[in-house]
């Protein structure tokens, strides 16, 4: 396996020929069983390293009666207790600033990223220079698989803040040898300026969230610009479901005339592109030699076989500063066995990450994920660009309403037929009825980052149905 060492060391001068399909041909195409043997060796090295350097892991494994030397198979590893995000936050509160799972001296932390803390205590990511370079090399590999090359100009159109996504895309493109343009997002009027700079700089690749790309396309249209004329050849996304949702993917491809690639897992396990596309179809590979991924039963947390749906559990194989060992994601996915016909012999997630277990809601006994609703409404020819999902209760009955902007020019006389058609499609997909409410174009704010479309507000449904507040 090319450049497979512990601790990780990469040849920073290495780059494949532009016409080479694989960054590391051996690592990416070897029989999966052989790779798993190497991964087990690496897991044992990572666990021994964490045992020696991290009081957090030593305490956790001591309590569970586990020692790194007892891990003799991947099945054994599946019995190691998972780490939950709340454990990391609590540990950092007790051991400022990076927690007792920091495995390098504090002086070796050269980069700080983290969560925003809008829903609680922020989590700080302390990143050594070694890890920064490992992430850059890993992301370069995955971006290469997407067809990005040194001749490209990559626009990073997401906030250049604590958010790991922006910096991961930036350093990956830089390591690959491309021209990287860190324009960011989130300031007033910035999207219009983005369009101007894209033309001026000859941008060929866009990185953002799917929501922002759709907002960019709408803004272009409002300025009299055809998004397909911007010259993009490839777009890759993270931060929210979308790029592997068929209707969203098709909409992005048709608007921009570019190939669309999905990527992304969790900032805590960066390189977050370890779930990343490498083919021109929906879905992502689990690049197991970067971050070992298991798909587990959400209730028992036991690993599931290929073909099953569950929640990913991640183990970093190249991080030395804050290694994550069996971190529970609480996301949802379904995975398939490696297939040599795809070229790369990694497990495949055909729908990518399509929701968070936390985001799931239950209506009349049916479990519903927002991405399933997105796929239906965004595929409709009369969809106007945004929607909201409203959950409420009428007496003892749960009620689901979907407010959907219609396209400009849809006659009001056509609204009842349109909403009935969408309602019927949603019932077929979800298994429960949904009241579709037609909304004028541009009713809802657009986002410069991640879309938040689910509203649980019991009074709001009465208002939009004309009853007014009670």
Care to describe what's here?
This protein folds into two domains: 1-356, ANL, N-terminal domain (Rossmann fold, 3-Layer(aba) Sandwich); 360-464, ANL, C-terminal domain (GMP Synthetase, Chain A, domain 3, 2-Layer Sandwich). Helices cover 31% and strands 21% of the residues. The chain has 13 helices and 21 strands. The chain has helices at 25-29, 32-53, 55-63, 74-77, 85-94, 129-145, 164-176, 190-201, 210-222, 246-256, 370-377, 415-430, 458-464; strands spanning 109-114, 124-128, 153-156, 179-181, 205-208, 234-237, 259-262, 275-276, 284-286, 291-296, 309-316, 325-328, 331-334, 348-349, 355-356, 361-363, 366-368, 383-394, 397-406, 435-439, 454-456. Strands 4-3-5-6-7 form a five-stranded parallel β-sheet, with helices on both faces. Strand 19, helix 12 (415-430) and strand 20 form a beta-alpha-beta unit. The relative contact order is 0.10. Residues 458-462 and 464-470 have low confidence and may be disordered.
Short characterization:
This protein has 13 helices and 21 strands. The protein is an alpha/beta fold.
């Amino acid at each position: 396996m090319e450049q497979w060492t512990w601790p990780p060391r990469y040849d920073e001068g290495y780059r494949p020929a532009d016409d080479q399909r694989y960054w590391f041909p051996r690592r990416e195409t070897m029989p999966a069983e052989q790779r798993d043997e190497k991964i087990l060796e690496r897991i044992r090295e990572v666990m021994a390293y964490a045992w020696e350097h991290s009081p957090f892991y030593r305490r956790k494994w001591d309590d569970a009666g586990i020692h790194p030397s007892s891990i003799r198979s991947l099945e054994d590893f599946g019995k190691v207790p998972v780490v939950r995000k709340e454990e990391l936050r609590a540990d950092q509160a007790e051991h400022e600033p990076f927690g007792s799972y920091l495995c390098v001296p504090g002086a070796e932390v050269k980069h700080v990223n983290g969560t925003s803390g809008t829903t609680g205590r922020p989590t700080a990511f302390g990143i050594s220079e070694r890890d920064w370079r490992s992430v850059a090399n890993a992301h370069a590999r995955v971006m290469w698989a997407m067809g990005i090359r040194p001749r490209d100009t990559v626009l990073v159109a997401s906030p250049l803040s604590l958010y790991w996504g922006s910096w991961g895309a930036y350093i990956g493109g830089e390591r690959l040898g491309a021209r990287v343009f860190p324009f960011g997002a989130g300031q007033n009027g910035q999207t219009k300026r983005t369009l101007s700079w894209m033309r001026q700089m000859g941008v060929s690749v866009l990185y953002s969230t799917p929501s922002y790309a759709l907002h960019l396309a709408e803004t272009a249209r409002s300025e009299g610009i055809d998004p397909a004329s911007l010259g993009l050849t490839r777009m890759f996304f993270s931060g929210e479901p979308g790029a592997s949702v068929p209707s969203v993917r098709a909409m992005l491809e048709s608007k921009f005339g570019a190939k669309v690639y999905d990527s992304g897992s969790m900032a805590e396990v960066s390189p977050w592109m370890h779930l990343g596309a490498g083919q021109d179809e929906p879905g992502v590979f689990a690049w197991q030699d970067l971050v070992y991924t298991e798909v587990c039963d959400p209730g028992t947390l036991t690993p599931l076989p290929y073909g099953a749906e569950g929640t990913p559990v991640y183990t970093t194989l190249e991080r030395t500063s804050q290694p994550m060992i069996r971190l529970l994601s609480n996301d949802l996915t379904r995975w398939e066995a490696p297939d040599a016909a795809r070229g790369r012999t990694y497990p495949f997630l055909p729908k990518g990450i399509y929701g968070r277990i936390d985001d799931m809601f239950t209506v009349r006994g049916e479990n519903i994920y927002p991405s399933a609703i997105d796929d239906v409404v965004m595929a409709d020819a009369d969809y106007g660009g945004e929607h909201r999902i409203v959950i409420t209760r009428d007496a003892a009955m749960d009620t689901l309403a979907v407010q959907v902007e219609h396209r400009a020019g849809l006659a009001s006389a056509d609204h009842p037929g349109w909403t009935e058609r969408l309602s019927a499609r949603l019932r077929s997909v979800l298994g429960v009825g949904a009241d579709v409410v037609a909304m004028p174009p541009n009713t809802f704010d657009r986002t410069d980052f991640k879309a938040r479309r689910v509203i649980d507000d019991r009074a709001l449904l009465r208002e939009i149905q004309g009853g007014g507040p009670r």
